[in-house]
């Protein structure tokens, strides 16, 4: 079971501007937001997978295949 997917970003505000309309169209909403990341999903259903975008945890610039 997948509980979340996360993609890195260099610009959180630009990512929010891109993803917000997309996820609203899919019936999802922002579930969490702080200075480092934001997630979308269904606030009323904790079993529903969430999508996160944010700055890398190690503080480095995001690159392709960071998790590999």
From TrEMBL:
Keywords on record: Dioxygenase, Oxidoreductase
GO molecular function term, any single one: dioxygenase activity
Record-given protein name: Glyoxalase/bleomycin resistance protein/dioxygenase
Domain of life: Bacteria
Lineage, uppermost ranks: Bacteria, Pseudomonadati, Pseudomonadota, Betaproteobacteria, Burkholderiales
InterPro entries assigned to the protein according to its UniProt record, in alphabetical order: Glyas_Bleomycin-R_OHBP_Dase (IPR029068)
Species per Swiss-Prot/TrEMBL record: Advenella kashmirensis (strain DSM 17095 / LMG 22695 / WT001) (Tetrathiobacter kashmirensis)
